[in-house]
Amino acid sequence: MASTQEIELKTASWHAEITRYHWLVLLLACAGWVFDVYEGQIFNLTSSQMLGDIVPNIDASETRRFGDMALAAFLVGGAIGGIASGVLADRHGRKPVLVWTIVVYSLFSGLTFFVDAWWQVLVLRFLVAIGVGGAWSVAATMVAEVFPKRLRAYASSFFHATSVLGGFLATFVAIAVAAQWRYAYLLGLLPAALALVIRSRLHEPTASQDSSDGAEGTGARGSLKELLFVAPWSGRAVGGLLLAAVGLGTFWGINVAGQDLAREFFVADGMATADAMERSKFAFGIVQGIGGGLGLVFFGPLCTFLGRRRAFIVAQLAAYVMVPIMCYVPATTLHLYCLLPVFGFVTVGFHAGYAVYFPELFPQRLRATGTGFCFNGGRLAAAIVLVASSTIKSHMDLHLALILLSQLFLCGAVCAWLMPETRGADLSQ
């Protein structure tokens, strides 16, 4: 029978278990993640002006080539930083490593103000990504360990959902600075102040202070060898990496194509190409982006209601069904604007599950290491999907290409079905 305390918790208001310190942890983690995303997106929005200033006589093809090189450097740096920071966080504590990662991406973003050669941009994008990749891994782990079990999924999904704010911030700043792109990177210095607040106000989660893993056994903290070669952690690490690869790969291959679908629709409807380009930016960045943000927020409650595995399966099957609808159903602008938020909701929403699910897959001594490996290893795998999707789109109709790429959602659903359920997992060990 349930204890009196358990019954009282079940019937209490949702905020009964949350203290001011819980809110502080969530607020600071979200702020770090917002600027984390800002650092990733601001280059995409300012790269054309940057390259025009520092590379003489650059043409469109060279701009794309340099942009791809910068993206590759960012993905590699993010993967290295995310995995290394996870290992360090398990060995030396969450708080100091979170502070370190924020300082790293803040400092090297600010230094971008001074670049005057392309190789400097590549080096700095790699170094910024070292911090960016690490910050998510540690912050996601910290939120999961601090919040009460009953509210963990809600807090973690909300944490990940604030990524939308980072994208909005980058968009508004890029518009505000216009051709004066250097000032957009100076804003990247602001998170350094956030690191000082984290250092002074937060303390280590109780779980990460305990060196004993009880029933889970004992082992080296932050051991990549144990994570990758000892069952059951090795299977969970590979499964989590594949889940992240599907989500991140379909984001770059399918979700961002919402802008292309909107542009093609506007052109077919008789709009001038230049006007269609600008209208499609709003359709993708705002209309579809709002749907994506709502999807991220609501995935936490879905995880609580259905369980982690079922939530991933349902979400990815919904995305699989939505892709052909988005490609072929819109007949009017109203149809398009009604479907784009739904498209964003189902193709992005389950990404919040990474912050919910990955920390629950591993024992305390491997938690940040496993979380960082899954998410950031997924980034590297997603880069392969990105290259493949570009090739596919260049050889066939966009609508058919998206339907072909949507088969990845089925792969993600199968992967989730094979993974363990972690709803209600005790993160004190």
In short:
The chain is mostly helical and 429 residues long. It contains 20 helices and no strands.
Describe the 3D structure.
- The chain is mainly α and 429 residues long.
- It folds into 2 domains: 23-197, MFS general substrate transporter like domains (Growth Hormone, Chain: A); 222-418, Growth Hormone, Chain: A (Up-down Bundle).
- Helices cover 78% and strands 0% of the residues.
- It has 20 helices and no strands.
- Helix 14 (273-306) crosses helix 16.
- The longest helix has 35 residues, at 20-54.
- Mean pLDDT is 86; it is low at 1-9 and 211-217.
Keywords:
429 residues; mainly alpha; Growth Hormone, Chain: A; 2 domains; 20 helices; 78% helix; 0% strand; globular; disordered N terminus
What's the name of the CATH homologous superfamily of the largest domain? Answer: MFS general substrate transporter like domains
CATH C-level category of the largest domain: Mainly Alpha
* Whole-number mean pLDDT: 86
Which residues form runs of ≥5 with pLDDT under 50? 1-9, 211-217
Characterize the largest beta sheet: strand count, sense, and whether it forms a barrel: none
CATH architecture label of the largest domain: Up-down Bundle
Specify the overall morphology. Answer: globular
* Number of distinct helices: 20
Question: CATH topology of the largest domain, anyone?
Answer: Growth Hormone, Chain: A
Structural class: mainly alpha
Order of helices and strands: HHHHHHHHHHHHHHHHHHHH
Strand % is under 5%
Chain-wise SSE layout:
Elements (H helix, E strand, L loop, with lengths): L3 H8 L8 H35 L5 H33 L1 H18 L6 H29 L5 H10 L1 H15 L4 H5 L4 H11 L4 H4 L14 H6 L3 H23 L1 H12 L4 H34 L1 H21 L4 H16 L3 H6 L9 H29 L2 H8 L1 H12 L11
